[in-house]
Amino acid sequence: MATNITPRTKDYNQWYLDVINAAGMADYSPVRGCMVIKPHGYAVWEGLQRELDARFKATGHVNAYFPLFIPMSFLAKEAKHVEGFAMECAVVTHSGLEPDGKGGLKPKGEIEEPLIVRPTSETIIGHTYAQWVQSWRDLPILVNQWANVVRWEMRTRLFLRTMEFLWQEGHTAHETWEEAEAETRRMLDVYADVAENVLAIPVHRGRKSPAERFAGADDTYCIEAMMQDGKALQAGTSHNLGQNFSKAFDIKFQTRDQKVAHVWTTSWGVSTRLIGALIMTHSDDDGLVLPPKVAPVLAAIVPIYRKDDEKAAVLAYAKELLARLVGADAVARAEAVCGGREILEVPYGSTGQRVVLDLRDGLRPPDKFFHWEQRGVPVRLEVGPKDLANRAVMAVTRTPRSKNVVSADAITPAWFDDALATAQKMLFERAVAFRAAQTRACDDYAAFKSAIEEKPGFYAMHWDGTKETEAKIKEETKATIRCIPLADVIDGADGPISMKTPGTDPVSGKPSEGRVLFARAY
Amino acid sequence: MATNITPRTKDYNQWYLDVINAAGMADYSPVRGCMVIKPHGYAVWEGLQRELDARFKATGHVNAYFPLFIPMSFLAKEAKHVEGFAMECAVVTHSGLEPDGKGGLKPKGEIEEPLIVRPTSETIIGHTYAQWVQSWRDLPILVNQWANVVRWEMRTRLFLRTMEFLWQEGHTAHETWEEAEAETRRMLDVYADVAENVLAIPVHRGRKSPAERFAGADDTYCIEAMMQDGKALQAGTSHNLGQNFSKAFDIKFQTRDQKVAHVWTTSWGVSTRLIGALIMTHSDDDGLVLPPKVAPVLAAIVPIYRKDDEKAAVLAYAKELLARLVGADAVARAEAVCGGREILEVPYGSTGQRVVLDLRDGLRPPDKFFHWEQRGVPVRLEVGPKDLANRAVMAVTRTPRSKNVVSADAITPAWFDDALATAQKMLFERAVAFRAAQTRACDDYAAFKSAIEEKPGFYAMHWDGTKETEAKIKEETKATIRCIPLADVIDGADGPISMKTPGTDPVSGKPSEGRVLFARAY
Question: Which pTM does this prediction carry?
């Protein structure tokens, strides 16, 4: 029942796919580049949605929904935007099918203007806001959308890069540049908060270089994470769009002093890609590791018995332990639902997260241990006849790796919450330490070229600010400027690195205002 | 500021659009037939999602996500299914755009096999389940998906019929026909529960006639509601798909007795159409009326003052009343978020529903009254200098229509919850009474033909069970069989109507096993 997982050191990419497969997170679908997000993977997304949505609303945003389809002509209205997306759009050209005479079907009913399946919604939302906004009293508009988007990618990878993905896209409109900038930064902070305090993924907040900006933005901010193979991953972006889209779509308003002006807009998004980041940050050769705040299953109770006469007593004891965590009422309600099913799932708290009791007859206990371990369940309680006799239980935690005999009386929600909090904290601290160990200052381009091969990670280098230097480095090393960090100092393997001290670009020899972070990236 | 609403009696269809517009629920978009769901409309959908999702999970279902695109060849695999959907599919044929040489764009990069934008997901999910299921131990699969779907409709109407709509689609697989049938009925009951106890829309649960079945189902169950214009509306469907899709997609499993069999599947769905039903069931000539369980704004507090020296005291008093409902801490948190904005929104409870304090300077109080009334807010508190002097408040409820002076001390969460519960109950009872008044038994076809014109509603008539009779009635009267009700007796204008007593079909003169419900429908 346990699925083999390729070790990270042997084949990192295969390890990633094996972890996803063993955990039942996702599958490729018959449509090239599209994935099926399986229940365990989708439950992680629901956890992430819950945490993000609460923060969006707590910062004054509301949700709305805009059309999946965008008229082809809209895309052309913002010059840089169309450049960025025209080559990777799914285009709808027909509105029906008819028999092709060979037993199959063919498209029928060509439509007048082709429709684009949204790769992102700045254009259709820009058009809509032009109707919504008349006066400064209609501002700010603070709207978020949960949606699917499509970008025709040639090289896809589950969660990290898929043709269709799920995301949220915030789209706001403001009276002034200052307000738009504040919004852009506010949402960057929300993303960093969720990445670090929910997903336990440490991130650098920073600005993108002009070459790496979103197509149509004046400024793109991002959070950048470090994966276990030393590659960086852009985990979220927040764009100050200036007046680019408001001019393209004529979003005008009457100002407080009775003039007419274009609004200032922002957009910001994170996607199911974050689940890829989550997997690559914490998981190990035994499978998925999940921070408790987004783990769909928080604990699995596995009964152990050899003979049939042990079974009833062990199961009763296992249920008693389950009830100690979730309450007897909740157990009774779950039993009524599960009926004949072999895994009893009981909600813990109000988040939809669950504690399960694994009653499957067809599996041996060690296979059950592997099963829950590979799915990233933080806590496992193993309950056998000896435990019953001692009124104890073997408590196994995924983070830290520990096995301890605990008395039944000690199994309380407080004990459980403590174990979960410890795992959450330890995962973040471990990832912070790992990232620092993969981060170095570098002032010599030749040294950088070999270092990026031998010790992949973040390299804090001086940069002259030109796209020529940036392009040369990318061309020669495949490393890109991940961000110009907002922080003055970041931790590296050899101690703190000052980012804002001026210096010299090691490639061009020109002066530099400060260091930026280079890495190879997903 | 108040928007004019056409009275129902003058033009029902225009009334419906006016209510949506005045409430800020939705707009047509530049893409024909696609709508923009505005924040107030989307918040109703979020309420509905919250209530449905909790019930899906409480009945053992989990969420997952399947691709938006379906290979064209999949649709052809189930003969009736392709018949039902081939003529209304959006078809993707290209993967990019290029300049057309005239300053615009044109599709580029024809793809090998066209992709269908899902009109529903039985085919892609059937294909997936064939990979997931090997043994009876893998069953049942109880999965739901929240998604957008596209059906190329020629005649669209906001919420009721749009080219793209949001919905949930449950897809389950079982060992036996009996289990699949039980699941189909269980989810029908969940839908009826949400319709009646959340949306306050009374529904008849029943089976569809073969002619009205879902394309590919063995049996379709539905909930049918009655709108204020006497037209019926199908509010949700639950299908027993038998082995039609498991045979088309080869979903096989090893049975408990070591044989190989095809699984039995079901599917069930409700959509944003329910919001149309909600509007048409409860709203009036003053605008939207919402049952409190899905009202995004539960109460609006409107301060009234003429002179500037009254303003500070009235606002302080209004905030005191707000705090009495939601707690002073919540008010303080909301003030920190809203910053300079003119409507202070404070969460009430944990559902995301809110109480608002309308601080807008640019609007007169009567305009604010209209504003919140048109948006279906159940309770309004009007607070002026006289109220302040008397430590009282004018409490206005939308259902029942009432205005009462209430002492400030009486404004408590208990008082508020009671007002909301009263409105919820009264809306349902009113709709139940209205439906009964629009429901009649009829045993004479000539009488039916004129009655359906003059007194639109449900007509309980005998039916011989043939598609010929059904088609004749549809052709001649535009009325269809809405359902074969599960209930033995339903209430009509002239008392209870026995549905299961045999009789004679008034059209064919052939024997009938019982009455069925005819109506014209949306």
Answer: 0.97
